[in-house]
TrEMBL record:
A single GO cellular-component term on record: plasma membrane
Protein name, as recorded: MFS transporter
Matches recorded under SMART domains: PlsC
Subcellular location: Cell membrane
Gene Ontology MF annotations: acyltransferase activity; transmembrane transporter activity
Phospholipid/glycerol acyltransferase domain segment(s): 452-568
Keywords: Cell membrane, Membrane, Transmembrane, Transmembrane helix, Transport
SUPFAM superfamilies: Glycerol-3-phosphate (1)-acyltransferase (SSF69593), MFS general substrate transporter (SSF103473)
TM stretches of this protein: 27-45, 51-74, 86-103, 143-165, 171-193, 229-250, 262-281, 293-310, 330-352, 373-392, 398-416
Membrane-topology descriptor: Multi-pass membrane protein
CDD domains recorded: LPLAT_AGPAT-like, MFS_MefA_like
InterPro entries hit by this protein: MFS, MFS_trans_sf, Plipid/glycerol_acylTrfase
Domain of life: Bacteria
Length: 633
């Protein structure tokens, strides 16, 4: 994933604003916990467990009270102004926190933790609702990947800095903590001034109704059929993450027999894994929403979690981080924690993107608010789950981690069985990337939603795979029935949603049945691909489009996206120098260019017009490849 978005004003200021917010949030929260544990408890004799649970409750409670209100505010106000006001609220909170740290006012610090939770609850909906207004649909996966990476790295750095600052003694430590909190908040406010305008998507009055508003937002979010899977899926990720991170100190103490340094190291491994998973998701998605990564991510979490639970306890007492780093078993365990995080990155980024794309503009922030509320519920459920397994049932951490791993594995397998097509499409894309140096242009011309027809020249038997893997949306495609019914590959074509077609000469009514299936797909809002030439080109040129294209568009007038492939003529799957598939492959990793043209509106796409468009795109693609290769292709 390149850093192009980070150089653009429409994304960079917001990215750094939210990253600094997450950094300061975790710095303040962890400094507070350390001060309570190592200063307040010994000084006043308070109960450590009660204080930690009280702090967790004070931080989570605002998500129930204010998330719904935050979603409504984000829908009804300019998100740019809302972000700035929330950053000013953060600054005011941090100034008060600096005073409380300096004078060691622990009661005030707990109250300010509630304020910081409130700021986070209000910022959450606008955090993801603003991205679709500043990024194209093909950039959302990359934008979400950067946001996830920035968030988890900020969490890690904030946690580590909290440990460093809390270790400083006396006035020096208090001054360093107070200065850091205020300075980071000030930088966040300054950067937020650069965020571009993001006009409101809804109108009307905004009222704060803590209980009824929360219930209404939750009900509305779960009632949206397209959004509901994303909400539940993301919340399951936070359930797993909360379980792992909550039990991490106990795992280090009881299993590894390590010190606080080992906790930070494993937390860093997990955070780096999530960041790498987000980057890998962006790379594999190539600007598309790849829901096939969700079950793959769940499987990675599951396998890694089960293997983590199978590790043995270390031998020794209070092993230092230096001693642990010399042990192979510790590196194996760190790798497994990183793989759990990597699976989480693969799993969560597509779901956040789905939530953004599937939400209506005027309700998007409220859907994100519903997600935040559900996340908080699942994190509370994770605490209850940990108490039941470890305290009530008196089972070990190994059993708890095994339960987490097997639950993720079951979710991954269930998702694959329910809908294998997205994962198959992803594997096709990976295969195409290995076989060819594929470049795509104009993918944004494929409509983000609704039915559409893609028409392309037909060069080789790999064309459908190249188009299916590169298109930003899943494609249904027509193909010859004899090939479709081949027992070796029929299972693949059925999963891929291919539509078999046969000539009336061989199967009377075959064309009619194929056209009816195409019509059903288009009326269901799908994208269908057709090769209007009806056969592989015998000479590399685009040949006359057949009348079947007119029949399809007469039945269902939909937008048509012309496309052209260049670079596959001469491959062993084309008809050059002999019939396709009868020659040995003579080149690997050939340069291939796929170009999508501007869509032609429904009702304005006669066959001759489309043929001219495809010919023009093919000429331009051939010339582009020719310039790169230094001669005719």
């Amino acid at each position: 994933m390149n850093s192009g978005l980070l150089a653009q004003r429409r994304f960079a200021p917001f990215f750094w604003t939210q990253a600094l917010g997450a950094f300061n949030d975790n710095l303040f929260k962890n400094v507070l916990l350390l001060l309570l544990t190592f200063v307040a408890v010994p000084r006043y004799g308070w109960d450590t467990g009660l204080l930690n649970n009280l702090a967790a409750g004070l931080f989570i409670l605002p998500f129930f009270l204010f998330s719904a209100w935050g979603g409504t505010l984000a829908d009804h106000l300019d998100k740019q102004r809302l972000v700035r006001r929330l950053k000013l609220l953060e600054l005011a909170t941090m100034i008060a926190a600096a005073v409380a740290v300096w004078f060691e006012l622990f009661g005030l610090l707990l109250a300010l933790l509630f304020m910081m939770g409130t700021q986070s609850a209000l910022f959450g909906p606008v955090k993801y609702a603003i991205l679709p207004q500043h990024l194209a649909a093909t950039e959302l996966v990359k934008g979400n990947a950067w946001v996830n990476l920035g968030t988890f790295v900020s969490i890690l750095l904030g946690t580590l800095l909290a440990g460093v600052l809390a270790s400083l003694e006396g006035a020096l430590g208090r001054a360093a903590i107070a200065t850091s909190l205020v300075a980071i908040a000030v930088v966040g406010v300054v950067i937020s001034l650069k965020i571009p305008a993001a006009p409101p998507s809804a109108t009307g009055r905004v009222r704060w109704r803590p209980l009824s508003g929360t219930w209404r937002v939750m009900r509305d979010g779960l009632a949206e059929k397209k959004v509901r899977p994303a909400l539940i899926g993301i919340s399951f990720f936070w359930f797993l993450g909360a379980c792992y991170l909550t039990q991490l100190p106990a795992w280090v103490k009881d299993v590894i027999h390590g010190s606080e340094g080992a906790v930070s190291f494993l937390l860093g491994a997990f955070a780096v894994g999530v960041g790498l998973g987000a980057l890998l998701c962006s790379r594999l998605s190539a600007g598309r929403l790849e829901l096939g990564l969700v079950p793959i991510g769940a499987l990675v979490i599951g396998v890694s979690g089960i293997e983590l639970a199978a590790q043995s306890s270390f031998v020794g007492e209070q092993l230092t981080l230096v001693e642990l780093l010399a042990m192979t078993d510790f590196w194996r365990m760190s790798t497994l924690f990183a793989l759990v995080g990597l699976g989480g990155g693969l799993y969560s980024v597509p779901l956040y993107t789905l939530m953004q794309l599937a939400s209506r503009d005027e309700r998007r922030a409220r859907m994100i608010a519903a997600n935040n509320i559900l996340n908080a519920l699942f994190m509370i459920l994770s605490a209850v789950f940990g108490i039941v397994v470890l305290s009530v049932m008196e089972l070990s951490l190994f059993v708890l981690f095994a339960c987490l791993g097997w639950s993720a594995l079951v979710v991954g397998v269930a998702l694959l069985m329910r809908n294998p097509r997205p994962a198959l499409r992803l594997l096709i894309f990976a295969l195409i990337q290995m076989l060819y140096r594929l470049r795509c242009r104009g993918r944004q011309h494929v409509p983000a939603t609704g039915p559409a027809l893609v028409v392309c020249n037909h060069v080789s038997f790999m064309d459908a795979l190249v188009l299916g893997g590169a298109c930003p949306r899943p494609l249904r495609f027509m193909m010859d029935r004899p090939i479709y019914e081949n027992p070796w590959v029929n299972w693949f074509f059925r999963i891929a949603g291919a539509i078999p077609v046969d000539s009336d000469r061989r199967d009377p009514g075959g064309v009619r049945r194929a056209l009816e299936e195409v019509s059903r797909a288009l009326r269901n809002g799908e994208v269908v691909m057709i090769f209007p030439e009806g056969r592989l080109t015998p000479d590399g040129d685009v040949h006359a489009f057949r009348r079947g294209l007119d029949l399809v568009l007469t039945r269902d007038p939909v937008p048509v996206v012309p496309a052209a492939l260049s670079g596959l003529w001469g491959s062993w799957t084309s008809n050059k120098d002999g019939k396709a598939l009868t020659k040995w492959p003579r080149r690997l990793r050939a340069r291939v260019l796929l170009v999508f043209g501007e869509p032609i509106p429904a009702g304005y796409s006669p066959r001759r017009t489309l043929e001219r468009r495809v010919r023009g795109l093919k000429r331009a693609a051939d010339q582009s490849l020719s310039r790169k290769l230094g001669g005719p292709i």
